[in-house]
Amino acid sequence: MASKAKAKSVSASSLNREPQRFLARAAEGKPVRIKVNGKGNVELLSEKKLKELRRRARLNHKFMEWLESWNETQEILADQAMMDAIRRSEEDVNAGRCRLWTK
């Protein structure tokens, strides 16, 4: 796994004095945190780093959807009454004891 570059904290006035220095650092994939009024509330990231963060967010979202689905499946499998109802429904379908639902 790639090492995480720690964000360098700079004041907004430092960024104003030496913008190329900090922009170059961000372009190299090293984040720069800009302190505005003493707080680190703005961060410069390279486009590559931003794309990577977006990719990870999408993967995390897909994983969370899968995990929720898996948990729901486990809850159904653990519910004996629900499993019995599903089995009876499958038997009804296989025996032809169902109709096509139309509006």
Uncertain runs with pLDDT below 50, 5 residues or more?
Answer: none
**How far from one another are the termini?**
55 Å
Instruction: Using the alpha-carbon principal axes, give the shape.
Output: rod-shaped
SSE succession: EHHEEHH
Which structural category do the helix and sheet elements fall into? alpha+beta
Helix content: 55-70%
Q: What's the arrangement of strands in the largest beta sheet?
A: 1-2-3
Number of strands: 3
How large a portion of the residues is in β-strands, by DSSP E?
A: 5-15%
Radius of gyration: 27 Å
Rounded mean pLDDT score: 88
Biggest pleated-sheet summary: 3 strands, mixed
| Total helical elements | 4
Count the domains. Answer: 2
Descriptive account of the structure:
The chain has helices at 12-17, 19-27, 47-78, 80-94, and strands at residues 8-11, 32-36, 39-44. It is an alpha+beta fold. It has two domains: 7-45, YefM-like fold, CATH 3.40.1620; 47-98. The chain has a three-stranded mixed β-sheet. The termini are far apart. The model has no long low-confidence stretch (mean pLDDT 88).
Task: Summarize this structure as a short list of keywords or feature phrases.
single chain; about 100 residues; alpha+beta; YefM-like fold; 2 domains; three-stranded mixed beta sheet; 4 helices; 3 strands
